[in-house]
Amino acid sequence: MQNARYILLFTILLFSQTVSFGQSRQRWSLGPRVGLNLTNLAGTSINVPGIPQGTNGNGSNELLPGLSAGIGFVYSDISRFGFGVDILYSQRGNKAKTIANNIEYTGINRVNYLEVPITGRYYLTRGGNFRPNIYLGAVPALRLSGVGTIKGNNSEISVNTTDDYRSADLGVTGGIQLNWGTGPRQHFTVDARYTQGITNIAYRATDVRNQMITIGLGYNFGIGRQYQPGDRKLPIRAR
């Protein structure tokens, strides 16, 4: 998991450099992001986590809704290619139900992360007020906190589970974003993406990975000089 931590550190350093370079190319935009996560846990070690299994073996592993919120940066060339970097607070985990001794138990595993999706984008149009794009990328993330809750038999128990989860995670993501122009260099965005964890997040298990569907809204503001068709793609300095 040290590798995932180093990847996140490298990402932050790379991002700080690309922001400076992107400003010189003057095609950046940024703005707030807010969305809904629908998350689950997958892997060979998943067996209705946190819940006692009933003798009838009746159990489920269900999607858990959570919050995604932060800020996003996008570089969009006048060609069809671009890339984006988001910095998001992201609630993940899963919801599990089972029946033991004719009593239904519900368990919620909530793990909160600071995630940094890095995506390459392909725009379906070269310009205009409507510019949808599809994207693929990686999602390094740092674990912030964790809590497990079990409800059933007229009782509720919550336990701090932060130390049960590894300090970093790495996933891959893909999705689609719709962009509508709403004013001078301003865009309203709607996007949907799927993220699949590729690293084990649990200390006490051999294979527990995050899965997540995110539906998000955003608003982008252009920064830097407005780029016009026919301008050079790289800044040319006077000699």
TrEMBL record:
Pfam families: OMP_b-brl_2. It comes from the Bacteria. Residues 21-201 form the Outer membrane protein beta-barrel domain. InterPro entries: Beta-barrel_OMP_2 (IPR025665), OMP/PagP_B-barrel (IPR011250). SUPFAM superfamilies: OMPA-like. This is PorT family protein.
